[in-house]
From TrEMBL:
Stretches with biased composition (Polar residues): 21-30
Lineage: Bacteria, Bacillati, Actinomycetota, Actinomycetes, Kitasatosporales
Keywords annotated in UniProt: Heme, Iron, Metal-binding, Oxidoreductase, Peroxidase, Signal
Protein known as: Deferrochelatase
Gene source species: Streptomyces violaceolatus
Disordered: region residues: 10-39
């Protein structure tokens, strides 16, 4: 059971510079229109939904275009804090936009269903299998994928319900998953998030202020295919954490699996959370302080020929199994300009020796082409569907 695709090596963009009082949570607002779609470089939100749709039998390119037009209009209204439109459920009445983002992508099968197979990106190839995969195909892939995030659970659910209702007779839900993160203002000062293993999670994620961030995460404006300009590719994995096994480890053993201190996320070689990791440092017995199989060592870009992904994650908990073990873990979403140079080689490396892989299991998977953002008056995917 190997491989995490760096799922625990980093979270999303850095926390806000100042404290976020709870009274301000509802006023946060993201723009739907722009060069890139929202929900990629946005700050982590406290709750979210991932949902995939399949086009209904008989629905093709025309119906898909009408659907994306409806979805884009609804997302634009909701992200501005307005009602969804006619038939609004009122679920989020009284609430502000609460940093809502809605992001749309196309699965590999979408192009066959719409007669657009010739315009399917080469990067949207099937992901190879990995030894830690226990993939449930009914909760994987899909023609269309939607990511919803917000800092209020009612606002997020309101968006999910509006998107599902807008699908009408054109598409039906294939699978749907719910996730959460720590709420803004829940800590005394802004901090990197923790995952359900209790580890600080997000220290080494690439940041938008890095000079090569755009080329690692987004398809260039003159890239191929042309309709993917300023877009990105999302790999989505439901990664179950085997928490009963993990929690049997001592805190010290947990730290050696990750390669970082549990208390503050600092590397075992010393310093603070953002200190450079000394990969050659040894202890009094001559053993590496950061073990050779530590997740933080193996997932480094410089150990993977520069392979880099932007992780943007939600935790999940879906109850308990018959054996009493929690069905809990991570809804892992990572972004890159090309998954064949990001997720795929990184995961192959992790598959061969990451100590963390004993304590996780990949249970669902998807890869989606996420086009660039829509300008005002346009809808997401218009260049593909009307090109």
């Amino acid at each position: 059971m190997l491989g995490t695709a760096g799922a625990l090596a980093g979270h999303a963009t850095a926390a806000p510079a100042g404290d976020t009082p709870l009274s301000s949570v509802g006023s946060g607002r993201s723009s739907f229109h722009g060069r890139h779609q929202p929900g990629i470089t946005s700050e982590l939100q406290s709750c979210g939904h991932l949902v995939a749709f399949d086009l209904m039998p008989g629905a093709g390119r025309k119906e898909a275009a009408a659907l994306l037009r409806r979805w884009s209009a609804t997302a634009g209204r909701l992200m501005a804090g307005e009602p969804a439109g006619d038939g609004d459920t009122g679920v989020a009445l009284d609430a502000g936009p609460a940093s809502l983002t809605v992001t749309f992508g196309f699965g590999r099968s979408f192009f066959d269903r719409t007669g657009l197979a010739s315009r399917r990106p080469g990067a949207l190839a099937p992901l190879p299998p990995y030894s830690s995969d226990r993939i449930d195909k009914s909760r994987s892939e899909g023609d269309l994928w939607v990511q919803i995030g917000a800092n209020d659970s009612l606002v997020a659910f309101h968006a999910l319900r509006a998107i599902q209702k807008d699908a009408g007779s054109a598409a039906r839900v294939r699978w749907q998953m719910n996730g959460f993160n720590r709420s803004p203002g829940a800590t005394v000062r802004p901090m990197t998030a923790r995952n359900l293993m209790g580890q600080v999670d997000g220290t080494r994620n690439p940041r938008p202020d890095e000079k090569d961030f755009e080329q690692k995460v987004f398809v260039p404006a003159d890239g191929e295919p042309d309709w993917m300009a300023n877009g990105s590719y999302a790999v989505v994995r439901r990664i179950r954490m085997l928490l009963d096994d993990w929690e049997k480890l001592s805190p010290g053993d947990q730290e050696r699996v990750i390669g970082r201190r549990k208390a503050d996320g600092a590397p075992l070689s010393g310093g603070g959370e953002t200190s450079d990791m000394d990969l050659e440092k040894t202890d009094a017995q001559g053993d590496l302080v950061v073990p050779f199989t530590a997740h933080a060592r193996i997932s480094r870009p410089d150990y993977n020929q520069g392979a880099t992904i932007l992780r943007r994650l939600f935790s999940y908990h879906d109850g308990y199994g018959e054996d009493g073990a929690p069905d809990a873990g991570m809804l892992f979403v990572c972004w890159q300009a090309d998954p064949m140079r990001g997720f795929v080689p990184l995961q192959f490396h992790l598959d061969r020796g990451d100590a963390l892989s004993r304590y996780i299991r990949h249970e669902a998977s998807g890869l989606y082409a996420v086009p660039g953002g829509a300008a005002k008056g346009e809808y997401v995917g218009q260049r593909l569907l009307e090109g």
